[in-house]
Hints:
By secondary structure, the chain is mostly beta strands. The chain has one domain: Ribbon (Chaperone, DNAj Protein, Chain A), CATH 2.10.230. It has strands spanning 18-19, 28-30, 39-45, 49-54, 63-65, 74-75. The strands form three sheets. The protein has a two-stranded antiparallel sheet with strand order 1-6. The protein has a two-stranded antiparallel sheet with strand order 2-5. It is rod-shaped. Bound molecules: zinc ion (ZN) (2 copies). One zinc ion is lined by residues 20, 22-23, 27, 66, 68-69, 73.
Amino acid sequence: MWELERPYKKPKPEPIKRRCHRCHGSGRCNCQSCGGTGKVVTSRDVMKGPQWGRCTGCFGNKARRCPNCGGDGFLQ
Ligand SMILES: [Zn+2]
Ligand SMILES: [Zn+2]
């Protein structure tokens, strides 16, 4: 009679990941430079009105990586 050698495995504690409250897990949030429009007023022409240019903060993507979780969507 012999005993089966069963190495005792300690259950690894799962890393607790909390969903980012700022981007709600998407990892992306609205660009604050353009307010999520992707465009910013670069100059105002009296005749033509405001001139729109691509936002330099998000490069026209309207969203940028969430600064709270670094784009992961979750916080460890
Ligand atoms: Zn986030
Ligand atoms: Zn922007």
